C-alpha cells in the first residue's frame, strides 16, 4: 500500500512553492498587504532581539491573523470581479463583509503592534 504523501502529484516542496507564490503575488500586487508586512518586520525583529518571546509570539499571531484575513479578502475580491464584472448588489455585500473581516483583523494587528512597539522602546 502506497503512503498517501508518496502518491504521484503530491510533493511538499511543490506545496511550499505554491504557498510562497501566493504570498509573493499578494505582497507585490496588493499594497495593503505589503506595507503591513514591512511595518511588522522591525517590531518582530526587535522583540526577538530583546528576547521578548511572549511579545514575539503575540506579534506573530497578530501578523498571521492580519495576513490571513487580507489574503482571504483579496482572493474574495478577485473572485467576485472574475465572476461578475458589472455592478451587482450581492457582490458588493460579499466584498463589504470580506473587507469588514479584514478591517477588524487590521485593528487588532495595529493595536498589538502599537502596544508592543511602546513596550519594546521602554525596554531599551
UniProtKB/TrEMBL annotation:
It is found in: Cell membrane. Keywords: ATP-binding, Cell membrane, Kinase, Lipid biosynthesis, Lipid metabolism, Magnesium, Membrane, Metal-binding, Nucleotide-binding, Phospholipid biosynthesis, Phospholipid metabolism, Transferase, Transmembrane, Transmembrane helix. Its cofactor is Mg(2+). It is an enzyme of class 2 (transferase). One of its GO terms (molecular function) is ATP-dependent diacylglycerol kinase activity. ATP binds at residues 77, 95-96. A divalent metal cation binds at residue 77. It is a multi-pass membrane protein. Substrate binds at residue 70. Its EC number is 2.7.1.107. Signal peptide: none annotated. The keyword Lipid metabolism applies. Gene3D superfamilies: 1.10.287.3610. The active site is at residue 70. Mn(2+), Zn(2+), Cd(2+) and Co(2+) support activity to lesser extents. InterPro entries: DAGK, DAGK_sf. GO terms for cellular component: plasma membrane. One of its GO terms (biological process) is phospholipid biosynthetic process. The chain crosses the membrane at residues 21-50, 56-76, 97-115. Belongs to the bacterial diacylglycerol kinase family. This is Diacylglycerol kinase. The lineage of its organism: Bacteria, Bacillati, Cyanobacteriota, Cyanophyceae, Oculatellales.
Amino acid at each position: 500500500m502506497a503512503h498517501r504523501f508518496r502518491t504521484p502529484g503530491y510533493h511538499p516542496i511543490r506545496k511550499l512553492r505554491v504557498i510562497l507564490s501566493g504570498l509573493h503575488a499578494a505582497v507585490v500586487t496588493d499594497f495593503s498587504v505589503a506595507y503591513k508586512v514591512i511595518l511588522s518586520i522591525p517590531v518582530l525583529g526587535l522583540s526577538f532581539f530583546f528576547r521578548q518571546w511572549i511579545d514575539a509570539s503575540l506579534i506573530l499571531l497578530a501578523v498571521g491573523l492580519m495576513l490571513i484575513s487580507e489574503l482571504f479578502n483579496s482572493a474574495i475580491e478577485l473572485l467576485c470581479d472574475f465572476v461578475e464584472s458589472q455592478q451587482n448588489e450581492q457582490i458588493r455585500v460579499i466584498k463589504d463583509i470580506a473587507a469588514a473581516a479584514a478591517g477588524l483583523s487590521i485593528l487588532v494587528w495595529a493595536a498589538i503592534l502599537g502596544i508592543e512597539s511602546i513596550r519594546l522602546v521602554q525596554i531599551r
